[in-house]
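Per reviewer request, we include the raw input and output of the structure prediction for the construct analysed in the revised manuscript.
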Amino acid sequence: MPAPNPSIPTLLTETSDIETASAGYAARFAGSVGRWMLDIQEQTVKNLLPPAPATILDVGGGHGQLAIPLCRCGYSITVLGSNESCGIPLADVVKQGQCRFAIGNIIALPFADGSFDMTLAVRLLPHCKAWPTLIAELCRVAKRSVIADYPVTKGFNTLAPALFGAKKKMEGNTRPWRAFTDEELRAEFAKHGYLLHQRNPQFFLPMALHRILKCRPLSQAMEKCFAATGLTRHWGSPVIAEWRKEKKHS
């Protein structure tokens, strides 16, 4: 396996993916409401993918929310986790040879430039302090495109700082996170020659509220109405977006 990018200090590490690969985090998506939210996430990502078998590096994807269904659809998936514990949810598909798991610094990717058709980072960007470095690395090792999700600094997220304590009390394992403007991410990806191709907000109401309601039919009905009126498109979060490498004209 190639050495990490030498331009990144070896002391600069990121381990936020350990929490998202834990059993406690998986419990947040248990039940029919959790399955509904994951189904939306999965289908949104699939709609952005080229036909299988494309090669995909899923950075921090040890939670298996996307790696497991995508490898079963014929994609060539490599998951990079910062610790061996991050591979536990993937044990079955790795054992069956459907998915590869590697350990390394998720903000100093141990792969050569352009090693994969595309890179994927879900449940990672808002928890990563060195997020510009993460974006640079996602772009560096991708040939075609990068897909990532992020909460936006509008809609219900404007209330997030005031409600964080209550959310943590209810969910237990809630962590601090950063919201982004579309403009700052657009600018950061542009530094590496990547342009926004598609932007897909998932929900108008906070995901935490849907978990509290515990009523999939009600959540589905409400979100369908919000999507039909355009509220989700303008104010929804988190967003799943794809940035594609800019084509150079001769």
